[in-house]
Specification:
It is a single chain. This protein has four helices and four strands. By secondary structure, it is α/β, with parallel strands linked by helices. It has a four-stranded mixed beta sheet. Strand 2 and strand 3 form a beta hairpin. The protein is globular. This is ADP-ribosylation factor-like protein 8A. InterPro entries: P-loop_NTPase (IPR027417), Small_GTP-bd (IPR005225), Small_GTPase_ARF/SAR (IPR006689).
Length: about 100
Amino acid sequence: MGLWEALLNWLRSLFFQQEMELSLIGLQNAGKTSLVNVIATGGYSEDMIPTVGFNMRKVTKGNVTIKLWDLGGQPRFRSMWERYCRAVSAIVYASIFSLFNYIV
């Protein structure tokens, strides 16, 4: 079982709902859109463009439909985060850290 499948199973165990909403927030280039794509399609691409504002994607896994709000991480979009985090089932904060920064 892959990491993303385990994450989806964990989310299903927390929320016995047919539908749920998740807001993905985090600084720019943290991988929020990549995470949405992996959950939705199982695929990963390094060629991504920054999210302008937000993107919404509905994903159905089994009998659960997940509405994913992928929110832009640039400073000019962060004021929108609160609006898209109200009344959602969960908020995912994506963070990236570079091991290179700790080695050098």
